[in-house]
Design goal:
The protein has 257 residues and is an alpha/beta fold. Helix 5 links the parallel strand 6 (151-154) and strand 7 (166-169). The termini are far apart. The protein has a six-stranded mixed sheet. Strands 1-2-3-4 form a four-stranded antiparallel sheet. The chain is built from nine helices and ten strands. The protein has two domains: 49-136, Alpha-Beta Complex (DNA primase DNAg catalytic core, N-terminal domain); 137-257, Dna Topoisomerase Vi A Subunit, Chain: A, domain 2. The protein has helices at 3-10, 12-24, 59-67, 81-88, 157-160, 195-206, 223-228, 233-239, 244-254; strands at 76-78, 101-108, 111-119, 127-131, 139-140, 151-154, 166-169, 184-186, 210-212, 241-242.
């Protein structure tokens, strides 16, 4: 039944008003029917999650992480790393020589945007990074920091777990300003003879940002090694953070190349 006939039967007074409004609007045809509204529904967006057991559920990854003073409950385990990655994103053409790896998840705004696989067995490729979203930040821990405070930026996810308000770059240095971090403190490995690292530290100092220059009394290569040696790494970092001219002077005496 048209709206016109419906109103005519139900309420003649309203029907007369409706006819007049229809006439004013140029709609004078008989049994005029109002068009149905065009309703558009946005497709729901589902967040990706890791469907893997925790590393703490298996002796080998749990033993490795515990020995490094890391919490096995913070990470996951894939018995067949390549097959698992391919279930999320086709990455490996050949899965014949697959292996087990510890899985380090990368989240941004509570959505799984990538992961790192850390080898347990001897392997020249210790870390494999896979991004599920190529436009997302290749950063570990970005959802768990206060961006209005100094943010410590380490080279690896494991190192970042020992430092307050810390993230890790899962790859080359990136512009963290893009992700709302205005006061980063960069922490590089303690390798004064590594030209790649010394070049990165030099560029960071030249950009005016803060950087940690390790004291000569420390021989350990990275934060995880320092923790295992019994050092209070947080205090060491806070006492050896420099910028500007002071950073350049400290860097000159630290590097060995």
């Amino acid at each position: 039944m048209s709206l016109n006939n419906f109103l005519k039967q139900v309420d003649p007074a309203v029907h007369k008003q409706y006819v007049m409004e229809k006439f004013k609007g140029g709609h004078t045809g008989r049994n005029f029917v109002i068009d149905q509204p065009d309703i558009k529904f946005e497709a729901p967006k589902f967040k990706k999650k890791l469907k893997l057991p925790k590393a703490s559920d298996y002796p080998r990854p749990a033993g490795y992480l515990t020995a490094r003073k890391l919490n096995p409950d913070d990470f996951y385990y894939a018995e067949h790393f390549k097959k698992f990655v391919n279930s999320l994103k086709q990455t490996f053409d050949d899965t014949t020589h697959d292996e087990e790896r510890i899985i380090i998840p990368l989240y941004y705004e509570k959505n799984l945007i990538g992961l790192q696989g850390r080898s347990i067995n001897p392997n020249p490729v210790k870390y494999i990074t896979v991004m599920l979203d190529d436009d997302a930040p290749k950063i570990y821990g970005l959802d768990n920091i206060r961006k209005d405070a100094p943010v410590y930026v380490t080279e690896g996810p494991f190192d970042s777990t020992f430092i307050r308000n810390s993230i890790a770059m899962c790859g080359a240095d990136a512009n963290v300003d893009r992700w709302g971090i205005s006061n980063p403190v960069w922490i590089y490995d303690n390798e004064p003879r590594n030209r790649e690292i010394t070049n990165r530290i030099s560029k960071t100092i030249d950009s005016g940002q803060s950087v940690v220059i390790w004291p000569e009394s420390i021989d350990d290569k990275d934060i995880n090694d320092m923790v295992m040696s019994g050092l209070d790494v947080q205090s060491v970092i806070e006492s050896n953070t420099y910028s500007g001219l002071e950073a350049k002077l400290k860097f000159t005496t630290w590097k060995k190349i």
